[in-house]
Please model this.
Amino acid sequence: MKTRLAILFLIIFLAVLPAFAGKYLLYVTIHILLLSIFSLGFNLLFGYTGLLSFGQAGFYAVGAYGCAKILLVYPSLLVGILGGVALAGVASLVLGVLCIRHTRIYFSMLTLSFGMMIFSLAWKWRDMTGGDDGLVGIPRAPLEVPGVFKINMAAMESYYYVVLGLSLLAIYLFQRIIRSPLGLTLQGIRDSETRAACVGVSVRKYRLLSFTIAGLYAGLAGALLPPLESTVTPPVAHWSHSAEPVLATLLGGIYTFAGPIVGSVLFYLLKDIIVRFTEYWLICLGVIVVVLVMGFRGGVVSIFLKEGSRR
Amino acid sequence: METLAFQGLIGLSVAMYLWLLASGLTIVFGVLGVLNFAHGSLFMLGAYFAFTFYGLWGVNFWLAIALSLLSVAVVGYLMERFFLRHIYNQDHAYQLLLTFGFILIFDDAVKMIWGGVAKIPAMPSFFEGTVSVVGRPFPVYNLFIIGAGLFVAVLVWLLFEKTWWGKMVRASASDREMAGAIGINIPTLFTGVFAFGAMLAALGGALGTPVRVVAPGIGAAMIIQAFIITVIGGLGNLKGAFVGALIVGTLSAYGVLLFPVFELFLIFLIMAVVLMIKPQGLFGG
Model:
């Protein structure tokens, strides 16, 4: 009950945020939401299925470039986002078939190489992706269903509500997924592949499903980016961008539902606070990562959970 | 024809440079079972130390290299002794994450100490000039790198095949528990191997300084190269890393000529194909 109340307050807070927040705060909040979606998908693969991917930025980029390409030709926000997500879904399904052949370090290396292949396409395939300049002048097209409604997106507030709505939907669906038989099966595979296989679970099929869902989430986060920034550049596909959800998830907590979301907030909060004192914020992040891995593998959320259960 | 041969020699020098980079990574993985994400950062540190000793303080070039190797070996020692050692029994993922944390730390530490601007170290005078190969000028320095790479290959081979320490390392790589049971001090040995791997990374970084810029972030770029090579050759396989370096080096030398647009894509494609078909690498057993 307490948690439900807290969640309700949080949603109300986010809903009224544009009333008193400035443009910068809204902009940062949108980025936090994007990283949350991105990290949730990543964590389905890592925390719930036990597969550490270093190529998620590739699917993020497919979503981002896909949405940007569509918006440049056909300015409709809905079509752009759905198109981007669909493309990322297809890409992750196809590459997933190849990636889930392996686990552990080989899986990480395989996802890294596919992610970097997408990066090299974004970087070098100038006709399609604009090369290292990226795609520019992407319109924040109106949200429109022809003949039903049309909402202008020029104001940051309007777009904020689109992102917030989609994020909440994605988070709600994620919660449904991990509590469903699918989510439990994935955790079973993570804990013991052999045992899962013995009770008749098609391990590969479930891993592929997990991989595709993670790709869809990455694609959604990516597709929401170009209307915000009005550009997409190759660094979104680079492996160092794949590290962001890894860090956010590690900060918040790996095996928990809320971990990646809390971690995404912390990621931007830490950045914002530390940057005020020193430009060397990555060294602080690095130290935090080392401390977390050495001593607090459950992340921040698990520290609170433990506190709660002790009382 | 001459272009092809000449480009092959260029490729060989690139390959030997990459071999210096990848050898330490594959040794550490082969023995400790840890894929060190921060190996590229140790490479970067090697370059920075060499730049400081030689370029800033005017120490003799060879002495500067030796000092740089020692310094990075100390960094490696500290990393293994106080951090990695404590998570060997954890999932592979945590070792990747821990060493990833070190990339962030080293990158910013380097910026703090040396500043964010790329440094361009001076070339020692004895590396200047060219020799004539198939009627074209070939830099003396590249020739030196080829020699250094082959020298290190022989040295590492001798170390592991012919010395008592090498035998202990191979024993504990194939069966950690059994090696411990017959009296090999595994933790100390592992620290030594990690420091040795760090030293090889530093050697690559230090020897690269005469021709490459020294900048923060080169570690993150180099580690991906090192991953590609070690994966193609088989993680933990030293011979494989040598051949992997030859493949990637040659490919990038010819790739620049033949298909400049898709060179990068092709290299990652090869990595992925090897992983899918033969994850133990081209030379894995």
